[in-house]
Amino acid sequence: MMKLSAILVDDERASLDALRVKIQKVAPDIAILQTFQHPSDAVASMAHYKPDVVFLDIDMPGMDGFSMLRELGTTDFEVIFCTAYGQYAIDALRMSALDFLLKPIHEGELQQAIERLQQKRKHRETSSINTARPTPSPHALFNKIAVSSLRGLMFVPIQDIIRLEADSNYTTFYLIDGRKIVATKTLKDFADILEPLSFARVHRSSLINLQHLSEYIRGEGGTVVMSDGSEVEVSRREKQYFFERIGWN
């Protein structure tokens, strides 16, 4: 297993201790270099420790987690936010975090986040970039996307999304379990996050998950059939882009 190092930042000592124990349990090879209760101390020490990942609380007195990252500027470590407040998820995405864990942190979710960290570091060190594929957005490294609905925030596994459909200033998510979620953001907002992954804009009102693509039916633009049997029109304007995304030129 790849040797990685971590720093933990949380103003609550009990949270730091609990997180340390869970990391040591699910990933004993990760070296915890230091823990900090004051973000300003972490900022001053980061250049010395040079960790691979920082597990970072958000809501802290004096300097919150976002302010700490802005203070550091360009960084070479990954960030996994650990917080009790789900409303910070979208801001965490914008800060290019590797993951966002809600307290109390479950060991399974922590292990998944660490596995993504290991995969990303291994890819950086050993693999070459395939220029034929879109470069992943930092946002896309989340396993879930925060969806703002009329009730609040929902955290939807990206692999469960079959397609998204625009409805004026709202967006409807169609999921593999048959559910539909109406989000209070435009399709473009979600396309900016999802399109660098396995999603493609095939029409001004449709974004599809290529992992759930079952069939393409020829036509002026054509039609795609998704894994749930739904059919989505491909516009003439997006047809060539769609072919490029599926590797059929």
Write a short abstract of this structure.
31% of the residues lie in helices and 29% in strands. By secondary structure, it is α/β, with parallel strands linked by helices.
Description:
The chain is an alpha/beta fold and 249 residues long. The protein folds into two domains: 122 residues, Response regulator (Rossmann fold), CATH 3.40.50; 92 residues, LytTr DNA-binding domain (OB fold (Dihydrolipoamide Acetyltransferase, E2P)). It is built from seven helices and 15 strands. The strands form four sheets. A five-stranded parallel β-sheet has the order 2-1-3-4-5, sandwiched between helices. α4 links the parallel β4 and β5. α2 crosses α3. The longest helix has 20 residues. The two termini are 39 Å apart. About 6% of the residues have low confidence.
Topology pattern, helix = H, strand = E:
EHEHEHEHEHEEEEEHEEEEEH
CATH level-four homologous superfamily name of the largest domain: Response regulator
Based on secondary structure, the structural category is: alpha/beta
Number of separate helices: 7
Q: What is the radius of gyration?
A: 20 Å
Percent of residues in β-strands: 25-35%
Extract low-pLDDT stretches: 127-141
CATH class of the largest domain: Alpha Beta
Our count of domains comes out at 2
Please name the CATH topology of the largest domain.
Rossmann fold
Mean model confidence by pLDDT: 86
Architecture of the largest domain, CATH level 2? 3-Layer(aba) Sandwich
Numbering strands along the chain, what is their spatial order in the largest sheet? 2-1-3-4-5
Number of DSSP-assigned strands: 15
Modified residues (4-aspartylphosphate): 57
Domain HTH LytTR-type: 145-248
Domain Response regulatory: 5-118
Pfam family, one: LytTR
